[in-house]
Amino acid sequence: MTAPPEFVSVKDEADGAFRAEADRLKIYSNRSLTFQKLQKWTEALDDAKKAVELDPKRSKSWFRLGQTLVGLDLFAEAVTAYDVGCKLDPRSDELNDALDDAKAKNKALPSKKNGFRPKRHAYHLKPELQTFLGQQGACSTANGLPHTDTPSAPLNGHAATANGTTKSQASSVGSNPSTGASTPNGISREPNRTFSTSQVPGKVPRTVNGSPAQAAQPSAASQETTQATPSRQDSGSDPMNASPPAEDKPPAQGLSRQPSSGRGTSTPSNATASLTSIPGDAAAQLANEISKAAADADKEKLKGNEQLKQGNTELAYSSYSRAIALAPDQAVYYGNRAAAAITLKQYKQAVADGMKAVELDSKYVRGFTRAAKAHLCMGHYAAAEQLYRQALAVDGSSREATAELQVAGEVRRQVEAGKASLEQGDARQALWRCDSACRALSPSPEPALLLKCQCLIVLNRAAEAVGEARTLTLEGDGNAPEVLALRAHALYHSGNMPMAQRHFEEALRRDPDLPPAKQGLRRVRSQISAKEAGNTAFQAGRWQEAFQSYSTALDADTELRTPFIAQCASNRSAAAMKLGKHKEALKDAELAIEADPDFVKGFLRRAGANMALQNYEAAQQDYEKIKRMEPGTPGISESISKAKTEAKKAKRVDYYKLLEIPQDANDYDIKKAYRRAALKWHPDKAPTEERDDAEKKFKMLGEANSVLSDAAKRERYDAGWSLEEIEQGFPEGHGGGMG
């Protein structure tokens, strides 16, 4: 059957890839994963076994093998595979978790009496797998794997010798009988050769009663079956040409979980044939699927690159994630996703992706630098510098690693200097240091941004602090308790007490023992409660109680100058006016204006207090400012007019005061008061040295009597007209003309 053209192309690519053994190892491992996704478990098993054979000390290969065995319901064998992997890499969470899971599944298996069997196409693989696991597991470590209680019989039927090898094998272990050349792992690749545990480094032959165990001969039928099974070398059915000539190896001593009487045998199975013999059509289909997955992964990577250039970082991150799902063993995909994660401030994910890239390719410098940059953004200076040095150890000429290592040192120095300046009370210098650190690195380092927010609060630049606080993160977490507490402080200093309270509460929900949040919440609640109590008392007419409640709110933080403080001070000013404490009312009104220069009520309170204190011109200025700030303020025009009138009155002679009579005095009272004052201040009765003053006083008394005795003039006088305006018949600014 003629292979499809696309399969020929894939095969040619695969042939080139298999020339390098390292590439072969990765390809087998990746193809095993692909077979798993396609639910082609026997094919996945064969590739996983080949990956193990190529490098028994590679923990990832044992992990792939364990995955495949779990897929075949061969949990006991999966436990063995994962266990070997864990011994090779004890710190691998992936392997340890998989081992625990396999143990749990194996323990939970129902008994055979209840009808349980592994998948039909897997059960017959158990004997060969036990042999394979014993053999390769021994090669993976110096001490090998634990022995089983059941020795394995050689598949070709030859009797074992005293040292555990067959007579036909004794002279040929580790070499090719034709050429004498050693094969990988010291195992002969000739068919019909037995393998003894004595050939495995660190493996001691199983003994029975003090002597090496003698394996029982298999039955004739078994021998015929074994001999009749075509080897992988002869079949020629591997469409990818992905493996060397097949190894028709007899098993080493296997791993059996059943106790042995010392007389057990291992019966060869029909599974000695190649497990990767795939029909041509299926092979072509698989080749296309593998090729398509790789091509699709590369397309996703290119799409992500373009999205990243356009600033669509979240879309780029998703594209890189899809590329990783299609080709999970490509370091560059993890490196690219790490770059996107850094931009998104997902620093922990960036570190994980960078280190995964390095795990896949130890020479991938950008894996080191991107993990290092993520650490630097989080303020993990030592970890960042160490990774940059590791990158330079791989490639000493890397400009990226060299430059970013210098940046790491600069960021560290600026942040530490900024902290010292703030502790010494120099918030401006500290802010300059923070800005320098932020300019050196993008995204800006978290410690510098946190310190910058603190500096802005100290400098009473609350609005800017709130803006910075909105984007604050700690190790990429925008809702970390420390971040929430600092955001709450920024809101508190901006006067947004309800939001500050909510942020303090959320911070304490996440960390109940966070001191800044506990102190901040206690103070905020006290101030809000005191203000509300003052409002209630004021509305009920309990002026003194209201005054005291507002005082409690203000005294909780005497340094705070926010809109909240402006409201409390304005309210206490109103209460003081009700109590007749005009000077205290004026003082509180000025505090309200200081706390919030845009607070209209503060100016209204100050104008009212000045009117009560007869500071009419000052009151007039406040009323006019209010009209400019809020032209629609009710009664503002009337208030301005009244202040002007009173200011004018204050400048003229007060006739009522001069005659010592009240403003509602009648004509009789006015005349009587005038006669009495005229007699007192008549110039003829005054001493010579006081005559000039007496004349002036006497003249003013005459003017007062003239104005107040005339009803029309008195009305104009009471309206604020001056003597000149009264005599002219119109007030200043309203003069008539010839029309």
UniProtKB/TrEMBL annotation:
Q: Which residues form a coiled coil?
A: none
Compositional bias per record (Polar residues), positions renumbered to this chain: 140-153, 162-186, 255-276
Q: Establish whether keyword Chaperone is in the entry.
A: no
Show the segment(s) annotated as Disordered.
140-276
Where are TPR repeat segments found?
A: 25-58, 59-92, 297-330, 481-514
Which domain of life, per UniProt? Eukaryota
Instruction: Supply the alphabetized keyword list.
Output: Repeat, TPR repeat
Amino acid composition bias (Low complexity), ranges on this chain: 211-231
Pfam families, A to Z:
DnaJ, TPR_16, TPR_8
J domain ranges (all copies): 654-721
Q: What is this protein called?
A: J domain-containing protein
From which source organism is this entry? Apatococcus fuscideae
